[in-house]
Every structure is written in C-alpha cells, then in structure tokens.
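dude i think i finally got it to work??
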Amino acid sequence: MILEICVDDVAGLEAAVRGGADRIELCAALSGGGVTPSAGFMQRAAAYGLPVSVMIRPRAGDFVFTRDEADVMKRDIDAARAAGLSGVVLGASLGDGSLDIRLLEELRRHADGLDMTLHRAIDVVPDMDEALEAAIALGFPRILTSGGARSALEGMETLARLSEIAAGRIVIMPGAGVRPQIVQTLLDRFPITEIHASCSAVPSYDPESKVAKLGFTGDGRKGTDEAAVRELKAILTAHQKGGAKL
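look at this
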C-alpha cells in the first residue's frame, strides 16, 4: 500500500517524510493545482532517499499545451532526471478535453527509464473508459484520478468502475480530497494499492503583517500536515494488515 504525498515546499517535503510517505509528488503552487517545481527543489528532494515523482506542467489552467510548452516540458523532464529523481507526472489534452495521445507519446518516449503517472488531465476527458485504455496502451503504470469529480469521495463509483475495467493492467490511484476521515470509505469500496493525498492545512500567519498586506503570502496557500500524513499512513497500514489476515 503506497501513500503518495504531494508537496510544494521544503517544509511540506520534510513533513511528508517524517509522517511516513512512501513516495513524494513534487510540485510548485499546489493552490493552483500544481506546476513544475524548481531545479533546486528537485535536487533537495533527491537527498531524502524516497521515490519522487515530479509534476511536469508548465503553467496552471487547462492541459492544452503548445509546441513551445511541450519543449519546456521535455526540458523539465531532463531536469528531473538530472536531479536523480525516480519519476514524472504527465498529462495533456486536446481542445475537447480528450487525451492528447500524440504529445503524451512524445513525452513518454522522452521520459523513458523514469516512472510515470498520468495525472488528472484524465478527469476532464469526455470518455474515461476510452482514456483508461489509451493510458494502458501508452504504457503508463498508474493513473492519478478523482473519477472525474471534485474529490475522490464524490467520484468513488467511477473510480470503482475504472478499477474493475483496469483489472490489474494499470494502477488506479485515487486522489483529491483524500483525508484520514474519509479514506476508509474508499478502501472499503474497491481494491486500492496506491493512494494520493496532500494532507494540507492552512498555515497560521499574521494578516496584518506587511508581507500579507502586499500579497506575498499567496491566496489559498496551504502547508503539509505531518500529523495527517502519519494518521493516513497508519490507516492504510492497518487496512493492509487486516486484508493479509483474511
């Protein structure tokens, strides 16, 4: 049972490691859904000895990327490899929301030798079953998805259907809104081998400080809650041990 924690700063990275994360998804600007982190952050993450997958997304917004943006994505894949990190997180869409198979195949080839995750670009596709088969054909080991909903809990029935269709050919990794309070509901609904969470909490700060008044704190910024990571990991471990006894 692999717990992947997404983080966007050094404090969050350290909290995730201390809390027992099995794998890190390394991002910047999680408040905007996550974009590619800096090369310096990648190098820092490599020092912890955990598998680290880097978000390859050149900007916030949709997942329809230009050729120039695709070139940037390739360079960011190179940076992740140069930092010694284990994987990348990819996604790309066409104008109608369907997967951009041509670009994804191009990026997949460029990332050869690295672990790969297809990210939540799949949650905006018009046909998730078709996208699942495309992801398998492209050779992705896993899909990070909320089942096309705002949260994994809301998309639980779709996640269960995708898991059944996948039939072990690809990992369906639930993500979005996964907290210790709701994870057991997901675990009880369908087989899960990997799960994704941010375990985020709003950090305390002085709204009257000059930093805050000048807008440098960042709207919607959150931090990683080490206690929530530890609690989530404990639930997953207990579930796994319970399943092993059956």
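The chain has a mean pLDDT of 93.
im so relieved honestly
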